[in-house]
Amino acid sequence: MIEISNLRSGQMLEPSTHVERMPVINPATAEIIATVPVGTAEDVDLAVVAAREAFPIWSGLPASERAACLHRLADLVDANVDELARLETDDNGKPLALARDLEIPRAASNLRFFAGAILHTKSEAYDLGGMGLSYSLHRPRGVAACISPWNLPLYLFTWKVAPALATGNTVVAKPSEVTPLSAFRFSQLATDAGFPPGVFNVVHGRGDVVGQRLVEHPDVPTITFTGGTSTGARIAATAGPMFKRTSLELGGKNAVVICEDADLEAAMPTIVRSCFQNQGEICTCGSRILVHRDRMKAFVSRFLDSVAGLKVGDPLDAETDMGPLVSADHRDKVEAAIARGKAEGGTLACGGGRPTHLPDRVKDGFFLEPTVFMGLDQDSRTNQEEIFGPVVTIQGYDSHGEAVDRANATPYGLACSIWTRDLERAHRMAARIESGMTWVNAWMLRDLRTPFGGMKQSGVGREGGEEALRFFTETRSITIAHPG
Ligand code: NAD
Question: Alpha-carbon distance 259 to 2, whole Å?
Fold first, then answer.
């Protein structure tokens, strides 16, 4: 049984018997595997004091020294990849191979990327002719709150923490209380990486207490948040009147547009992955497949064949494609959405229930079959609301204009994929689809330099590359007149 503790002022705090704790449950086995402290507003306040005190020291270091700390931490993540991956799988339910081969290595890449990026930044200067010179400074803003969700726990945690630290801010981070294990192990590794005390602090606990206090704390001017749209609205309502800088990465209802000339044979493995990887619990997963009616029959039969081949089972098994959903509560929510889809008149083309014949070790886990609905209207709740699970719908369209209109007909605008061999059409559609990120003949083809984020109710602001470096710094413009 792991007893999770907070990191403050460079020390892992000893678990205290006075502190209330919550269980952490392995969703594959339904067993309690750890306990996490129920953090308080006072825990946040102490962490913010530590981070504020460390700010002048950390922001005053040469960028190369900050980068060296981040590289050391990245090396420690790499050296502990197997342990971190196992923690991630036990905590979240994702297939072990996904955690070990993609997500934990990506956490190390996030650290290395921003450690490198901070050494290659530049400032602008404007020659005012005979009058003078203007130039810009980009300075760290102070204490940054980094609040992350449960679906890609360490991957998204480091996506926020790395640029915040690289740019010279100090951090109070709050991982999801549903999946706190990898952030806990990461914070232990951070104590070995040589950060000055107080630079990086982690407070575990519930969102409405620890997260809320971080958002409303007067000494935290910067908030980066990834999570649900309703939580984002609440954060914006608190942070807006305080004039805090916020980056909100929120939910999605992403379209997968299949054009009549799509190379279905080549594309199908990626299309299926785009819907069901990580049990559909990725914000960029496709959940509404829009198919040109000329290819509907061919698409549906190939797609359903491929989905039938997905193996749902023990996430430790190398053959497993889909593990359990993250929690019993979340499975309840997804099951309620499936029931609603049926009540709205949807036809189940496959799935809809819990898998039978699970291996003994995981027979009590929170599994669901990959589920495909057909025959639902665009304005049904199933086609409008984020489900965040292994549930997709298929709709037909007759013209590309109709495909674009349908893709845009939700309150969200996070991600989209277009499958076509016609590049001109791809450019045309991509420019018209209201989506922060569009992939053509690909999904989750990511480069850390590219902007990441959504429009409409999918978020405010962008992360990644230059955007992140700008977000975590305050730009100041200085103008000097030439003498005389
Ligand atoms: P959530 O909003 O419930 O929680 C996210 C984090 O916010 C958690 O750490 C939680 O404790 C904290 N939180 C909760 N209430 C808070 C409050 N009042 N103030 C401050 N913090 C608070 O989301 P979740 O269920 O953990 O994650 C799933 C959601 O995240 C989905 O909607 C998904 O689409 C979204 N998501 C978006 C992206 C993206 O990049 N756009 C990426 C991953 C997940």
Answer: 50
* Partners of residue 24 on adjacent β-strands: 34
The Cα 103–Cα 133 span in angstroms is 46
**Contact status, residue 78 vs residue 105, Cβ threshold 8 Å:** yes
The rounded distance, in Å, linking the Cα atoms of 103 and 99 is: 5
Q: Is 349 in a helix, a strand, or coil?
A: strand
Integer CA distances (angstroms), 180 to 24, 92, 177, in order: 8, 9, 5
How far apart are the C-alpha atoms of 98 and 102, rounded to whole Å? 5
Catalytic residue among 103, 177, 249, 434: 249
Atom of ligand 1 nearest to the CA of 178: 26
pTM: 0.97
Q: Is the pLDDT of residue 249 over 80?
A: yes
Distance 248 CA to ligand 1 centre (A): 10
Mean pLDDT over 6-24 rounds to: 87
Ligand 1 contacts CB of residue 150 (under 6 A): yes
User: Domains along the chain?
Assistant: 2-250+458-478 (3.40.605.10), 254-447 (3.40.309.10)
Question: Candidates 156, 172, 176: which one to mutate for ligand 1, based on the most atoms within 8 Å of Cβ?
Answer: 176
User: Per the structure block, which two tokens stand in for 323?
Assistant: 């593990």
Judge if the beta carbon of residue 284 lies within 6 A of ligand 1: no
